[in-house]
Amino acid sequence: EVVLTQSPGTLSLFPGDRATLSCRASQSVSSTFLGWYHQKPGQAPRLLIYDATTRATGIPDRFSGSGSGTDFTLTISRLEPEDFAVYYCQYYNGSPLTFGGGTKVEIK
Amino acid sequence: QVQLLQSGAELRRPGASVNISCKTFGYTFANYYVHWVRQAPGQGLEWMGLINPRSGAISYAPKFRGRGRLTVTRDTSTTTVYMDLSSLTSEDTAVYFCAKSRRPGVGTTPKDYWGQGTLVTVS
Fold it and tell me: B119 exposed, middle or buried (CB, 10 Å; 0-12, 13-18, 19+)?
């Protein structure tokens, strides 16, 4: 089982700031199977990035993904008010498919 | 327009079972795997399993395989997927989501559309 560790647990930032979220895998994984979601309270997760770097349909270009091997990063270039949420990475290969524990991006 | 519409909240006693439905709309049902993911109160996301709607083949997370508590089925005539979880304990209290695979024909793909979630309370 691939274990994903996200850091930091909480990120306190101002609107307009740059956010950098980390997702570290317990073993080297193919970037083809690494994605990012965000989730707002009371809502289902929403797919942001898949295959480590590809933005999902309708996702603005302030969101970008990077990384390979064991270290992956989600960057939000300038935080908008609607971006304050919890962010999860997911590895969608093997069994079980696994999620990271999440990073909460909160307004400072 | 793709939609996944789940059944409503459920309250169950410990030891009971719960069945949740996920009615799908707006895409070719047989072509896209459907996953089940749950989220305990204040916690992260946990993948439970998936079904290939075309063949009915399933894959469950190891924690649900041993005791056979989880059963995922589908009805192609109504484009609906069902999740049955038995021998419930308080640790099964969670919001349960169904989600559609982004790519056709494979389960190893991100989930692009999600149901609204179903709260199951075991008490």
Answer: middle
